[in-house]
Structure formats: C-alpha cells, structure tokens
Design a protein that fits this description.
The complex is a heterodimer of chains A (481) and B (452).
Chain A (H helix, E strand, L loop, with lengths): L2 H18 L1 H9 L3 H24 L9 H19 L1 H5 L6 H12 L15 H16 L1 H8 L8 H7 L12 H25 L4 H12 L16 H14 L3 H8 L3 H6 L1 H21 L6 H16 L14 H13 L12 H19 L8 E2 L2 E2 L2 H25 L6 H12 L20 H15 L3 H7 L1 H5 L2
Antiparallel strand pairs in A: 1-2
Helix pairs in contact in A: 1-3, 1-4, 2-3, 2-7, 4-6, 4-9, 4-22, 6-7, 6-21, 7-11, 8-10, 10-11, 10-13, 11-12, 12-16, 15-16, 15-17, 16-17, 18-19, 19-20, 19-21, 20-21
Chain B lengths: L1 E5 L3 H12 L3 E6 L2 H10 L3 E4 L5 H6 L7 E4 L4 H14 L4 E4 L9 H9 L3 E3 L1 H14 L5 E5 L4 E7 L11 H8 L4 E7 L2 E3 L12 E6 L1 H11 L8 E5 L3 H12 L3 E6 L2 H10 L4 E4 L5 H6 L7 E4 L4 H13 L4 E5 L3 H10 L3 E3 L1 H17 L6 E7 L4 E7 L20 E8 L2 E3 L12 E7 L12
Parallel strand pairs in B: 1-2, 1-4, 2-3, 4-5, 5-6, 12-13, 12-15, 13-14, 15-16, 16-17
Antiparallel strand pairs in B: 7-8, 8-11, 9-10, 9-11, 18-19, 19-22, 20-21, 20-22
Helix pairs in contact in B: 1-14, 6-9, 6-14
Classes of the chains: A mainly alpha (481), B alpha/beta (452).
Chain lengths: 481, 452
Amino acid sequence: MNRKMVLSTIGKILILEAILMLLPVITCIIYSEFGPLVAFLKSIAIAILLGGGLVALNRTKHQVIYAKEGFAIVGLAWIMLSVIGCLPFVLSGEIPSFIDAFFETVSGFTTTGASVVTNVEELSHGILFWRSFTHWVGGMGVLVFIMALIPKLSDRAIHIMRAEMPGPVVDKVLPRIKSTAKTLYLIYVVLTAVLTLFLIAGGMPVFESILHAFGTAGTGGFGVKSNSFAGYSPYLQWVTAIGMLCFGINFNIYFLILIKKIKSVFKSQELFVYLGIVLLSVASIALNILPQYSNFNDALRHAGFQVASVISTTGYVTTDFNLWPTFSKVILLTLMVIGGCAGSTAGGLKVSRVVLLFKNIIKEFKKLLHPHSVNIIKSDGKQLNTSVIHGVSAYFAIYFFCFVGLFILISLDKYSIETNLSAVAACFNNIGPGLADVGPTSSYAGYSVFSKLLLSFAMLLGRLEIFPLLIAVSPSVWFKK
Amino acid sequence: MNIVVVGCGKIGAAIIENLIAEGHDVVAVDHNEQVVNDICTVYDAIGVTGNATDCNTLTEVGAANTDLFVAVTGSDEFNMLSCFLAKKMGAANTIARIRNPEYNDQSLGFLRQHLNISMSINPELLLAHELFNTLKFPSAVKIETFAHRNLEMVEFLLRAESDLCGLSLVDMRKKYNANFLVCAVSREGEVYIPSGDFVLNEGDKICIISSPAELNKLFKTLVPTRRQVKDIMIAGAGKTSYYLAKMLLAAGNSVKIIDNNKERCEELCEALKGAVIIHGDPANEEILLEEGISSADAFVALTNIDEENILLSFFASSHNVLKVVSNVNRRAFASVAEKLGLDSIFSPKKIVADVFVRYARALQNSLGSKVERLYKIMDGRAEALEFIIKSENELTGVPIKTLKFKNNVLIAGIIRKRKPIIPSGDDVIMPGDHVVILAAGHRINDITDIIK
C-alpha cells in the first residue's frame, strides 16, 4: 500500500474543496450575508491547513498506484470531502448538529438530495448555494475533476477513474485520462448552462435557476423550496423533467454526438432500454393516477416528472406521490433500484447492469434446455468478456446483501416497514425522498443519530458502487503489506 | 500527435510507454483482449481489441486521422498489410516492423516504396548493430555513434582499480592529454552534467564523447591490458545472432554459434559462410567448455530466455571471457543483473523505443532543425541528441560561452565537414554543422530548446 501517495492525493482534494468554497463566498458577498461568510472563510482555512499538511508531509518519489490505492483514494477522499464540506453548515449555525450537517453534506456530494432541514426557506443564500453546489461537484466526481486539472497524477490514474465512475466498465472516450476528464466536464458544464438558460427563460429567478440546474445536473435534488417543484409553472416542470432524463444518460452518448458519430448512438442498447423503461412507467402511472387529477395533461405531467426524477435518481417532486395508489408507488420504488445509465451522474443499479443480468438469465435458460449449447452475451454488437458478466453478477449480489443489511439495521429505529424500506432504497440509490414518513413532504430529521450515520454510509456506498468504500474502510488494506 | 500502435507485445509496450511519456495520444490495438486491458491499465492509452487489417477496426481506431501508424506485431506480412491499408485510409506516416532477413535485403526498398511505408524497423538488426559496436570496443559498456561515426560516445563503469577514481575532470584532461569530453556522470541513480571541478568516484557510470581515434588513444592508456576481440561465441541462433554473425564475419572475426534447434542450425550453416555452428544446448556446461569458452574473447548470450542469458553470462564471466554481452528484455532482471556485475546488457525494446522517440520528435518539428539521432543514456535519465543546423538561428554565429543555456544541458560535440570538434567556450556554431546535445530532465524538440 502506497500510503503516502494516497494521503497526498487526499490532501490535494481538500485543497480543491477549499478553492470550490470560494464560490459560496462570492454568493455571501453578493447577498451581504456576513455570518455564513465567516463560516466559509473558517472552513476554507481548515481545509487548506489540513490539505496542505497532508501534501507537505507525504511527499514521495514513489508515485505508482495500483488498483488497491485507487479504491482507497476514492473511498477515503469522499469521506474526508464530506467531513470538511459540512463545516460551513455547523460553523454558521444553520445546521448546528455535526451529525445532521454531515448527513446533509454526504447527501449533497453523493447527489442523493435527502435532507434533514425541515424549512429550507430559512437557510441563507450562501449555505443554499453550497448545498446545491455539492450536488454538481459530486455528480461527475471530484477525482475526475482533479484529473482534468492536475497535469500528471500518476501513470495508472485509470484505477482512480474506474473506482469513481459508475458502471460495469469504464470507457475512456479519448486516449488520455486528462483529456477524457476534461471532455466529460466540458459536456457537463455546457449541459448545465443550457438548462440554466431554459429555466431563466421560463421566468425562474436567476439564483433559483442556477441552484436547480446544479441539483438537476448532478441528479441530486436539493432545492430552495420546501415543496420542491410543486409551485413552479408546467413549463418549468417539463424542462426540469427532460433535464433530469438527459443527465441520466451515459455521457459517452453526448461525446459521440459531439464527434458526429450519430450511428454509434443508435447502437447503444442501454439508451433505448432506459427510454423504454421511462415511457412504459410514465404511461402506466399516468393511467393509474388519472382519477386523482382533473385532466389527463396534469396526470401525464406529474407522472412524467416523478418518473424522470426517480429513474435519474434526482428526487425533485411536483406532487406528494405518497397519496398515489400503491401500484404507482411500487413502480417508483422499482425505478429507484434500477437507476440511470452507466457513465451518467445518476445512481442506482444502472440500466446496463440490469440489461446484462437479464441477458445472463436468458443464457442460463438456454443452457438448461440445451446443456451442450454454446452461448455468448453481446452488448452493443460486441461480444462481452465473461469477466464483465461475473463482475455484474457479483455486484448484484453484494448490492442485495448491503441492501438487506442496511434494512435490518435501520429497523432498530421507530418507523414503519414502508418508511424504512424506502429510506434505505432512496439513500442507497441516491434518490432522496422515499415513501410514507420520509416522503416528499417530510424530511429525514426524525431519524436517530445512529440511523443518520447509517444512511450517510448507505449514500456513500451507493454513489461509489460499494467496493471502493468497503476497501477504504477495511483495516487489512491499510496494515497488511 | 495521434499515434496508433498495432501489436502490444514487448516491443509494442515499450513503444507505447515511451510515446506516452513524450506526450502523444496513443491508441493501442491488439487481437488479444487481455493484453489490451493490461496495457490500458498500466499506460494512459486507449485500447481497441480487433484485427488491424480489418477495415472496421481501422475505422474504429481512427486510422484516417492519425499522424503516425505503427504496426509491430510478430508477423511481417501482417504489419505490411496493416500499414498499407492505414496509409490508403489517410494515415500521415506509417512504420512497419519487418524483421525477416528475406525482406531485409534488396527487396526492402522495393517493399517500402510500393507499400508507401515511411519507415521499416527491424529490432533484431538494430540490436545486432549495437552489439557489434560494443564488441569492437570491449572496455566500454555501451557505445553510441553520431554523424556517420565521426563522433562516438562511450559509456563505461569506473571500477575500484581504475586510475580515474578520485580525479577531477580538469586533472583528468591534463593527465591524458587527449581531446575528449566527459559529458555525463550517473551516480547513485542521479545524472549529473559535470563541470571541470567534478571529482570522479568508484562506481560512477561516465559518458565520454570524442572522435573514434582519440577514444582509442585514450582507452589504450586507460586500460592497457584489454586487447581486441577476435574470437566470439554466440549462444542462441535467432535472427539477431544471424545479423550479428554476418557483421562480425565481414569484419574478419571468427564466430561460433551454439543452438539446440537442429533445423535452425542447418539454416544458419547455409546462410553464414565461415561461421562454426554447433548443435547443442547452450546451457550445457560441457558443450561450452568443449567448444572453448575459456579461450573466447567475447561471449554473447542471445537465447530467447532472459534467465538463461543472465546465467550463461555469469558462467562466461567466471571463465575469464574478456567481454560478456547479454540480451535481457525484462527491465527488473536487467537491473538486478547489472547490480550483480554484468555490465553490458542490451534489450531490443530500448533501442526500438529510442528510434520511435526520435522519429516522433522529428515529425513534430519538421520545419526546424530535425532530431537526427537520439539515444537515451544512463537508464533513460538523460538523452544525447544530434541535430543538423539548417539555417541561422539564435545559436549560430556567436561564441558558445555567451549563450545562456538551461540547467543540465550541454553541447557535447560539433561536427563540421566531417571533422569533430570538442567545443570550448570560444567555439561558434555555424549553419551546416551537426551538433550533439546532452540533456537531462528536458524534452528537446528543437536545437533552440536548449537556451533559456
């Protein structure tokens, strides 16, 4: 284990976080909020001291990292990022409890959007900005951001990228990691800017537009209103719904469009399955909830928005779906688990994994019927290596076990099965609002300290796809040579 | 530049590593998925699995827009076809590995011309050249040549018994009264470009640059006991052995080749007139002794197995063979063997990588003064480069001492009209000169890169 390299990379990330905190500082200055301003300046000082210390103490010539270091860097970085990131909330006194603030920050960086704040309107602009900005940074990944900036991280930095980017296989779109990271961020920035303009055009105030664009781009879900999107016009709701769907799509697709390889876009099976699931869910929910609304347009809009919000794991809402029939709620719960496409900012199991699992089942069926038959699994017209399929099966297994483990532990708290199940599903898959007592109109404030820590852990597990975090916290990686 | 490398074996990996370190964008292609994955994990390249003579694969790797297309698989014919297709699709330059002796005679020019291949590369032949140079100069570890052999650079290790230990460079020059320059010293993993008061120590690896005649004179006084190599024994009958034996025989040496592949022995017997071919296991002590290893002047270990080469070399050293040279591909093995006392270790990988780095730099800088030759020395920590000064620039026409150089850069030699000059502060660079530069820690594309 190259501990020095791991720790110095963490140091660099903390310094980056300090730099990122300059944006909320500017916001505080614009809105003349001096209390939060001091809190941010203090947090920046702490981040720079800690990060600078880690970098200075861990200078090393031996810069090679292997898969193990890649996982450890990513796992540890996200924990440290959240610990430092929650300081502004605590120091400004707007979320005084450290555990609450930690939960809120983890929820931000992992783009979950689960909140312990009961009245969002009371928060200052600076704090609101930071809360939403964590979504945007966490969406594409902090380490990918670092890789786009730092000239040369390490020869084998691909290990870090693999650990942080969601999905069964990580494709570089360009030969260099640095240029790949830059391109991804460029696409990300442009799409966010476009969305902001569309929101502003719909009459949303500029500050709110920017924050909602952050929340949508990162597929997070923090907003500025307690009732989320319920108060906005149908135009804004449609724009946001389409925005959320777009950020749930694999970014490689945008890259292919950028380099004008439109043909390859149509080869992407994941994209079509994703859109198919969306259409099917919207249709069935719209019909199911039709009796509750005055006209079909409203039903379609609410169904579309909620489906887009849940499958992209964002978590904005336009209506309290707790009041919907059970069938619709179960569909939403299923969509939570499926999640968006690999290589997007969305969470969940990922559509590509679900597709592969299905194909594997079909293959096993054929094998049972014709024991001597030879079957291969193809994806986007290319034969898939069996190791990828094994990886996906193993991931599904550990996903399931983690889910059950978290569900059992959360049941120690006082809530009903429906609340707990949906809370775990919503946090583990980075959606945000669940059902019943953690539904769209309520918050996670009622959970105990233990449950909040557990759910924070669940969010990190979900965002980093389990393995990096488990590896980062397992002692054997750190102490055994 | 965008570079596609087809074939990710030993040679391919070495090329990819060096080109990425040079800052190029590399696409690695191989038909074996596992190999491609391994390459992409270790190096910052993008990988494509497929057949590089297939139109679809060539389209996928973007052959049409590449600046350089390199095919270095094990098959000459595959490489030629792949390069030909890539060129037709629009690749700007193509390099094919062509190593079969049958293609490397008169037909090579014909092939290259008609297949439109910019350069063909033959690692075995390059290695044989390098080995041949070293055998001619038995006291040196390695020897590199510049400007049609008008200037040579010799790398050698200072042993405890050497007279040079404890001598400063100024004193050394006075003592030996020859026209030479100590241009680089490697000590404990650091490379120094030494000044006059630098004191040499035991264990230093030093580079001396001078004309061949002066170097001969210097080495005669430096190590008087060493004699010329005449009688050479080669273990292994691969392509390198064939090329090397051919050169050695032409230079009037006696050559003995040992291999345990009967067919190959017969082939060589037919191809090499005058060489003694022994059919037997080169790792068999009896055969080596019987064939007179103790009376050989030089032993060259060229079997396919690194471990065998290293052990055979030690065996030869223990029988007081004057010069022992071995081919070791794996870098870790090479450094261990070097620590244990083998000094002349070669690898075709490294030689090929040097060629590619030079070629890529020359391509990038096709307007200015091109890199004519490039050698990575001292385990790749320093570079020796040769440039031709085509026109007037900042460097020409003024005494060298008035120029402001970057740190760790040195003008090591000037060749004017085939006459070598070891430069002093008063010398002037003129258009038409060949200039040899030594640089550590810089990437020199153009001759003007050496000044601040």
